[in-house]
Design brief:
With about 100 residues, the protein is an all-alpha fold. It folds into two domains: about 45 residues, no CATH class; about 60 residues. Helices cover about 75% and strands about 0% of the residues.
């Protein structure tokens, strides 16, 4: 609205109006330059492309979360095996656990 009012002003009043609303005008012009560069001449936002990209990324995120969970479970099982192995080795040297909770995972 401010920028439109600025453009509608007569040339003599435009300078005064620009001084008064310098920040708003500068922000509008900056946003306009940015959008022209990003949009590459398009006049509408690519909402369909964004939605399809969002859906694709959501599927990939779910797959990666499943991979993460399975790897996390594998690491937990490996830690349990190493704990158990260390417990057996200690028993082999005559060291015994009085509290078997140390071997629980």
């Amino acid at each position: 609205m401010i920028y439109r009012q600025y453009q509608e002003q007569k040339p003599k009043k435009q300078a005064v109006f620009a001084e008064k609303h310098h920040t708003e005008i500068a922000l509008f012009e900056s946003a306009e330059r940015y959008l022209k560069g990003v949009m590459n001449g398009k006049t509408t936002l690519p909402i369909k492309a964004w939605r399809s990209e969002h859906a694709k990324l959501t599927v990939e995120q779910k797959r990666l979360n499943q991979d993460y969970t399975s790897l996390k479970d594998e690491v937990y099982e490996d830690k349990c095996l190493f704990k158990f192995k260390d417990g057996i080795e200690m028993e082999g040297y005559g060291l015994y656990f009085h509290d078997r909770k140390d071997l629980e995972c």
